[in-house]
Amino acid sequence: MTSPLPICLVQSAARHHASAGALDAFAADVRRITRTHPGTRLLAFPELHLSGHRPDEDPGEVMRAAAEPLDGPRDAALARIAREAGVWLVPGTLYERGEDGRIYNTAPVYSPGGERVAAYRKIFPWRPYETTAAGAEFVTFDLPGHGRVGLSICYDAWFPEVSRHLAWQGADLVLNLVRTPTVDRAQELVLARAHAIVNQVAMASLNAAQPDGIGRSLVVDPEGRVRAEAASATEQLVTDVLDLGEARRVRAYGTAGLTRVWNPFEEGQAPLELPLYGGRIDPARWRAGAGSGDAG
Description:
alpha/beta; hydrolase activity; C-N_Hydrolase; C-N_Hydrolase_sf; single chain; Nitrilase/N-carbamoyl-D-aminoacid amidohydrolase; 15 strands; Carbon-nitrogen hydrolase family protein; hydrolase; four-stranded mixed beta sheet
């Protein structure tokens, strides 16, 4: 049995990285939200929420100025904010200066105990416009008593391999942190539902508010039904209470009680060659993935 998971997605414009006391202002935001929504367990913000730039600023200069090592002072401050609020905190994504000297677009996660429990580097930067280095690992983290969450960032949602691997690694919910100001947000809404359906996983697509994004954040259940959504680009909170065990139920019994996408192979079926990847789907390995929590 899993416990209900109250979530709060903060559809907000970005905090300017150079603003005096930006982290203090962020901490105040977190306190205000958790005070008005005291049951929240998972609190999330959009892509680059703490690394915004003004129209007259060069994005590359902002990126270089805002980047710091993952375990720097910013990390300690965010861990403290999570601990003081008593929530699982996803503060959006940050510019991380890696040990290799390159800059990554990274989503950290902090526990209510004030520990960083995960950090995901965006695998698919939006080329050629985004110049951050590409990450190379799929990342999930566990919410004890609730289930497993996978992380993706904005353009990652256009590549089915990301959500597929997160679901295969046992994710019950994929949290996609977005900063989309362009008209293709309409397609992203379709992709969120499609990923939920074909992977039998809940999806939460959290976009920034205007002027950084055009909003329309949404939460989708493992059968593709929209549970909650923001109909506009204004700043607002999208709240829901999820049962992450629902993903495992859908995988076991099928979408609409029929379709079991994680069990399509007959016993003894030969591996399926995948020329695009120079690899294959091994039926035994496929079955050992989603829902087991042991893959990775």
